[in-house]
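User: Teach me something about this protein's shape.
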Amino acid sequence: MTQDKTADSGIENEVSKGNKFQKPKGVHDILPDTHEYFTFVKKVVRHRCRQSGFRRISTPIFEFTDVFKRSIGNDTDIVSKEMYTFQDRKGRSLTLKPEGTAGVVRSYIEHNMQLLPQPVELYYIEPHFRYDRPQKGRFRQFWQFGFEMIGESDPALDAQLIHLAHLINEDLGVAELFKLQINSIGCMKKECRPRYMTDLKNFYFGKERSLCENCKGRTEKNPLRLLDCKEEDCVILAGLAPTLKDYLCPECKEYHEQLLDLLKALDIEYVENPSLVRGLDYYTKTVFEFWDRETGAQNAIGGGGRYDGLVEIMGGQPTPAVGFAAGIERIVDNMKREHIQVPRKDNLHVFVAQLGYEAKKKCLKLIQKLRDVGIKTVGALGKASIKAQLHLADRFQAPYTIIMGITEVRDNTAIIRDMKRGSQKIVSYDKVLDEMKKLIGEESLDTYSPGEVVY
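Assistant: First, the predicted structure itself:
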């Protein structure tokens, strides 16, 4: 697997600091407070995708390396520099998935989904892996959600997909922070993109000295990528280069014009961006991204496009398709930046404190009964004093505490303490459940019906 090119001492410092292990560079722990945002994003994505007829798919964390080489392209940065590739014990080359579309298309072909009603609409929420230079919003393990529509070609499908992404952004409260950038990169007919590529190479011929180091190798291998480099000199040259829009064949031109008209009908703002090409070889016709209104592409949260030739490249029959993917970490960062609050479901209802072995036995059963009716409960079942347990209840910020000691066990009662008011009352042990349900309110109980699938 790819490794950091550092001295042994540097590697040791990354692994541990003193006797404490450190997480690897470029990955991050998703702590409970941040998980509340992740959970909310996933809920919104699932809701919107189900509304639109999409069904969820999960592909393996790793695939045979050729799945990505063939689909993404050998000359892309992802394949040439960023993949985590390793050999298994039989010497087969495997790669942690750097993006979601290739695996979904492989699955579409392998499981004969072309026999299903078309288009097949699939969505995923998965971790991905790229050996990239870590920076704000860019990690080596990162989460994406995405959706694919495979089996049909029409500008209306592209518009629906973009609209779905826009609705999710609205639901998450970040839509106003981003603006849709859109372009057409044409098709592979001789009179369309290939003609443009020839003129683009001719334009850059003799200008290699003005290009950054990354772009010098792109003039022959991947010339379209010259257009979206962010280095100043490369940006200047790209602004002077031929424009792909002027080379589109009549079919691609009409397709793009219809798409823009449909986006207007959906009241979606967009910017036509002739430099937008995306970083994967499989795209055709439509490409789009959602860019930060202030910082542009540096803080894009997602993008996609049409990939009408990918199924055939992967070994299937010629099949049109369009897809989108967005980075969850980047979306969450923007939600936090805007101080967007998400629903919290981890707040406790009750803390159970006890003293003595017999009280502990009764509390164990009571805790489970409380949980079964949807009352979120935690119990301190160690040997701490009641005073220490009440202090712990304060730290958990539980609104109520149930207290049982030797006297309560003898009298078959329990004390219910309102932690905010400081008041308390004694109730029969058999009435604790009903009393707590009244105090908390039916609408606040965390319940589900037997057999219901909970994500």
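Now, about its shape. The first strand starts at residue 16 and ends at 17. Confidence is low (pLDDT under 50) at residues 1-9. If you'd like, I can walk through any region in more detail.
User: That's plenty for now, thanks!
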